[in-house]
Amino acid sequence: MPRLIILILLFFCSVNLLHSKSPSESAFSETLNEEYDQEYFLKLRSVNDVILAAEEKFGSERKKDLAYFNYIAEIMRKRFYHGYSHYSFEQNALAKISGLVWNDLSAIVIPDDIMKFPMAACSQQAIVMVEIFRRLNIPFRHIGLPGHYVVEAFIDNEWRYFDTNKEPNIQHNRRSFHSLIASSEFDSAYIKKSVDPLLLDQWKNKFFYGAINEKPAPNASKLHIIGYGLQSKYYVMFLFIVIVIPFWLRRRNKKRNAEKSSWTRKYQDAYWKS
């Protein structure tokens, strides 16, 4: 058991000292039919960066304006290309190891960590949008579709549909998901993005709404936060103080007691012989 503890400590110490590659070193995708612009990735590296970019264009007084959020959606379309962003071993060892058991567990769900990468899957882009709505006090809810994940926000007294991943051209008439699927606009906007009509039929018939203001992926978020804590130098120091030092003190006391017992026996032997 003590050897196992020491091995665990050495493991996390080594991980903490490893150099983490910058996500900016990742190869950029040359994907077709996407609006990704590398300049947006280089300029916008956090959720607050996106909010500040919108404020520069519209001013802070228009934070609940539909045009304001249409602009944010446009930024997101150009900021990411489609593809899951995962933690590397150096960035979050616990998440990476968990991902070997189930790949989704290493997929990043912390919004500002997603913003460090040029790629994000539909759920990850929705997570960033949700975080923007949350910081601006806009009610939101996610919509689960077969093989897809989108979000709605309550803006100008109506639910508005956002899908920055598939990028349907609906920003000039952004409405609720229910309103869109009741019209031909939903199909035509996605067909232009080469989405299979059969898949669209599934989306319109097999969907579910999340609870209003429900935090996405709460369990995965906890796992990733714990992973960061385990790699923290302060956590390693804490483990050293509460586990290694008491273990060393117990061994030292045990050794001293053994030496004392040995000395006592020698003294008693010498006494009886005399």
Principal-axis shape: elongated
The number of helical runs is 12
Low-confidence stretches: 12-32
First CA to last CA: what distance? Answer: 46 Å
- The mean pLDDT is 83
Order of helices and strands: HHHHEHHEHEEEHHHEHH
As laid out across the biggest beta sheet, the strand order is 5-4-3-6
Rg is: 28 Å
Strand content: 5-15%
Biggest sheet overview: 4 strands, antiparallel
- Helix fraction, binned, reads 55-70%
Number of strands: 6
Indicate the structural class: alpha+beta
Integer count of domains: 1
Describe this structure in words.
It is a single chain. A hairpin with a 2-residue loop joins strand 3 (140-145) and strand 4 (148-155). The protein has helices at 2-17, 38-43, 47-58, 66-79, 93-101, 111-114, 122-135, 177-181, 185-191, 197-205, 218-231, 233-273, and strands at 81-82, 119-120, 140-145, 148-155, 158-162, 208-209. It has one domain (2-231). The longest helix is centred in the C-terminal third of the chain and has 41 residues, at 233-273. It has a 4-stranded antiparallel β-sheet, sandwiched between helices. A two-stranded parallel sheet has the order 1-2. Helices cover 55% and strands 9% of the residues. It is α+β, with helices and mostly antiparallel strands and 274 residues long. Residues 12-32 have low confidence and may be disordered. The radius of gyration is 28 Å and the shape is elongated. The protein contains 12 helices and 6 strands. Helix 1 (2-17) packs antiparallel against helix 12 and helix 3 packs across helix 4 (66-79).
